[in-house]
Design brief:
heterodimer; A: alpha/beta; Rossmann fold; 6-stranded mixed beta sheet; 4-stranded antiparallel beta sheet; elongated; B: mainly alpha; 11 helices
Chain lengths: 299, 270
């Protein structure tokens, strides 16, 4: 197992004499080698806390976390194989773009100017290499974060809200970079609120709520076939079947939804004289639909 | 480990160079030094020159200590507060290496400041025609190690407290304060006799005595240096005490280094 968490609990103190908040509550997760794994959930679900636990930045109050079978602790040698992009731009603001990427590269044991320049150019920050991070925009800082992830050839990549602050072109480029990294053998774990983006690149995901993993599965299964229906449009006729949910009815047509398993029966009805099917399309459930339905069920 | 240390030290130097507060402090030191020395050029007597040299030495050495403490305190606390330390600890760079680089960076800057102070003193000895007094070396070496141990203590405080609180703690809770409490409490116990508050005062005194015993002192042989500070003569210096002071400061620095490292490893970097 590349990344694993077993019954992890993390509590935070609200303040002095103010009790505690459960950020993670019996959180368990497994990420396999080669996965592009997404952690999904509403704000405060514990996604970032889970990531901090994986990175050894927080030691859990209970349970165990392991990366490559080892316990993660700050600065251990394990991080030679790991890249991390933080959610907030917590970089060394007093450094310039080039100094920052070079510094992070040197911490990874890479002291090659060419690699640093290539990574900076790749994210399109070539002309801003001399600009201090404190003067950079949010998107530019995010690109610095991406550049420092590109300098090594990591086996495991943690990305906390990676496309936050990026323009659509940069988002597309970033997606390509991720897919390429994954093809080269990197396992990717990411947090994001952009479900359409997750759907596009991830093969597995976990939906979290209130510090727990509600469901964890393959993306295709997570989308849920039970949520798939046929959208149909036909000429109006009397005695519409009861399994058909009418969405729009006009004098010239009826639009509605029918369950997958009733398609043959519906087609049989359409074959009767005086009836005409105008359109029939499969409506696939999106991750967004599943996400809401799972969280709604949880509530 | 050395490439990691060097990468961190170089970055720390950039931090110092671009930190406005530290640059302002350095400029202030140079200005104060210049302003204090100017009257010396109007004096004619060597005694007056020596007195002025002593005050310049005292002033610059004091500022050197303040700057060294400031370097350690700001470097570690700012990186923790702005959370950039997350970027370091999620790379193969353990807290002990990062902390060591911070101590070394502050130490190197302190060494340059104290060496500079020595050179300035030499220059003033030459300009004013006063025979060189080797006690200057004793004082500067002693002050340098004292500054380093204070910096280590300040760094430790800055990882457990807010930096402003750490500074307040450093300035207020000193060995002398506990000594003063001891005297006051001893007087109080004597005055109370067998009164109702006597047991309570005794318990408080015991606590203060314990604190006084364990509280670090940063100038352990200060009393042995009184004569030397007034004459700057090497013959008035007991060099054994300097050796002991260096050992004491090194042990104290190592202790606070390990304590800070212990806290850094257990801290939650959210």
């Amino acid at each position: 197992m590349m990344v694993s968490a077993e019954n992890v609990s993390v509590n935070f103190r609200k303040g002095l004499f103010q009790g505690r908040i459960k950020a993670l509550d019996s959180f368990s997760l497994n990420v396999e080698e080669g996965d592009i794994f997404a952690l999904l959930g509403p704000n405060g679900a514990g996604k970032s806390t889970a990531m901090y636990c994986f990175l050894g930045l927080i030691q859990p109050d209970q349970g165990a976390v392991s990366l490559f079978g080892q316990k993660p602790e700050p600065g251990v040698d394990l991080f030679r194989e790991i890249a991390y992009l933080p959610e907030e731009p917590h970089y060394h603001q007093y450094l310039t773009v080039e100094e920052a990427v070079r510094y992070y590269a040197r911490l990874q044991g890479i002291d090659s100017g060419v690699t640093v320049t290539r990574a900076i150019d790749r994210v399109g920050l070539g002309e801003f290499r001399g600009l201090r991070l404190s003067k950079c925009s949010k998107g530019m800082k995010q690109k610095v974060g991406i550049a420092q992830c590109l300098i090594s050839d990591p086996k495991l990549v943690f990305l906390d809200e990676p496309t936050r602050g990026l323009d659509p072109i940069a988002v597309k480029e970033f997606r390509d970079v991720l897919v390429e990294m994954n093809r080269k053998g990197a396992t990717i774990v990411l947090n994001s609120h952009v479900l359409s983006e997750i759907e596009m690149i991830c093969n597995r995901a976990a939906i979290m709520n209130k510090g727990r993993v509600v469901v964890q599965d393959e993306m295709s299964r997570l989308r849920g076939t039970s949520l798939e229906t046929y959208h149909v449009e036909c000429l109006p006729f009397d005695l519409l079947p009861d399994y058909m949910t009418v969405l729009v009815r006009t004098p010239t047509s009826v639009k509605g939804e029918i369950p997958l398993e009733r398609l043959a029966e519906f087609m049989g009805q359409m074959a009767l004289p005086g009836r005409k099917l105008i359109e029939c399309t499969l409506k696939r459930a999106s991750l967004e639909d599943s996400f809401f339905s799972i969280l709604k069920g949880e509530a | 480990m050395y490439p990691l240390l060097w990468a961190n030290i170089q970055t720390n130097f950039i931090f110092y160079r671009r930190n406005r507060l530290l640059v302002a402090a350095a400029v202030f030191i140079v200005l104060m030094m210049g302003l204090t020395s100017i009257p010396g050029f109007l004096f004619t007597s060597k005694t007056q020159h020596l007195e002025l040299l002593k005050s310049v030495l005292q002033l610059v050495s004091g500022f050197g200590t303040v700057v060294t403490v400031g370097l350690g305190l700001t470097l570690v606390s700012e990186h923790i507060r702005d959370r950039s330390v997350k970027m370091v600890f999620t790379k193969p760079c353990p807290p002990e290496v990062w902390l060591l680089s911070s101590f070394l960076s502050a130490g190197l800057v302190a060494a340059v400041i104290f060496a500079g102070t020595f050179l300035i003193s030499m220059l003033l000895f030459l300009i004013w025609g006063i025979p060189f007094q080797s006690g200057v070396v004793y004082i500067l070496v002693n002050d340098f190690f004292q500054a380093i141990s204070l910096m280590a203590f300040a760094t430790f405080l800055s990882v457990v407290l807010h930096p402003v609180l750490a500074l307040f703690f450093l300035l207020v809770f000193r060995e002398g304060l506990f000594y003063w409490f001891k005297i006051i409490l001893a007087g109080g116990i004597k005055a109370t006799g067998d009164g109702a508050y006597a047991p309570l005062l005794k318990v408080v005194k015991m606590a203060v005595d314990t604190l006084y015993m364990i509280w670090p002192t940063f100038s352990p042989y200060e009393s042995q240096m009184t004569q030397l500070s007034s004459t700057l003569r090497g013959s008035d210096a007991d060099w054994t005490y300097l050796g002991l002071a260096i050992v004491y400061a090194s042990v104290l620095t190592a202790l606070f280094y390990f304590l800070t490292d212990f806290v850094l490893k257990r801290k939650r970097y959210v």
